[in-house]
Amino acid sequence: MGSACLLASAGAHADATLDKIKQRGKVTIGVLVNGGPLGSIDPNTQQLTGWNPELARALAKGLGVEADLVQVQTATRVQFLQAGKVDLLIASMELNPERAETLGYAPTPFYRVGGTAAVRKGSGITKWEDLRGKPVCVSQGSSFAKPLANEYGAQVQGYKSSSDSLLALKGGNCVAAVHDSTLIHPLLRGNPEWAQYSAPIATEVLPALSVVWTRKGEADTIAAVDKVVQDWHRTGWLIATEKRVGIEPANPLLPELQARFKAGS
Predict the structure, then answer these.
(1) Do residues 88 and 30 touch, judged by C-beta distance below 8 A?
(2) N or C: which end of the chain has fewer CB within 10 A?
(3) Whether the Cβ atoms of residue 221 and residue 87 lie closer than 8 Å to each other
């Protein structure tokens, strides 16, 4: 698909980051762990589990080094990358023009996701336009904030994390909490704590590609990471991992890209 062929924001010159990663035998990857199948902390082992951590560990393996996972927050993940606290980001941060202006990224996406609204049952909210003039909770730094405010007239309230945003929804501070569909749908599905909530809006706001982020101009790192991501598609590893960690519904982008890379295009 055309959107999968976006060019990486990389300069023509080589970068030193990949050499440093190889020399120390370790890559530091910032991951967003906000509960649910995208990322959680195992209460027994205190290990990071879920989609983002699994992708990060698999990326390190593909690069031939160990993984050093660093938890990041939505509001600070870009600063962590730009300040050199992490080498890469796999942090539920979708591709958009503003981010591509300041960061580099591997051009092959590993997912596509948009925003879904969790609302209390009986709220009368059935479409995005119903949020006009009403308070809506998001995470600070969320890409959904701008379209919710500009296109649908919502009164957007930013919280430090998705957990804080969802707690604000439960506390009646907003009529909806909008986050990645991969977070909202598993949260509401069969969870007794959320039995009084649903995701009634059929469409997603701002569906976009999920990519691995680097610093601007790191051409060697981008090329190495992109090769690993392409292998994930070619082997079907992403589809298998999606099912194993419980992300539903199945993402239609993944079969498309698997077929493309298996065909060698």
Answers:
(1) yes
(2) C
(3) yes
Question: Before 186, cis peptide (omega within 30)?
Answer: no
Residue 250 pLDDT: 58
Q: How far apart are CA 15 and CA 10, in angstroms?
A: 10
Given a contact cutoff of 8 angstroms between Cβ atoms, the answer to whether 29 and 69 are in contact is yes
Place of tokens 């996701």: 113
From the list 7, 226, 25, 202, the residue with the least C-alpha distance to 114 is: 202
Compute CA 169 distance to the chain's CA centroid, rounded to the nearest angstrom. Answer: 21
Asked if 59 and 125 touch (Cβ cutoff 8 Å), the reply is: no
Percent helix, strand, coil in the chain, to 5, is 40, 25, 35
Q: What's the alpha-carbon Rg for the chain, to the nearest Å?
A: 18
Give every CB contact of residue 170 below 8 A, 6+ residues apart in sequence: none
Single pTM value for the model: 0.80
- 51 conformational bin, left if phi > 0, alpha if psi -120 to 50, beta if neither: alpha
pLDDT in tens, 26-84: 999 999 987 778 888 888 888 999 999 999 999 999 999 999 999 998 888 999 999 99
Give the tokens for residue 97: 């023009």
Structure tokens at 49: 């589990």
Q: Is residue 4 classed as helix, strand or coil in its secondary structure? A: helix
HSE at residue 114, side-chain half, CA atoms within 13 A, is 13
Whether a cis peptide bond, with omega within 30° of 0, leads into 249 is yes
CA distances, 143 to each of 150, 169, 205, 213, 246 (Å): 12, 19, 10, 15, 24
Place of tokens 């990322």: 39
Q: Are strands 213-215 and 103-105 parallel, antiparallel or unpaired?
A: antiparallel
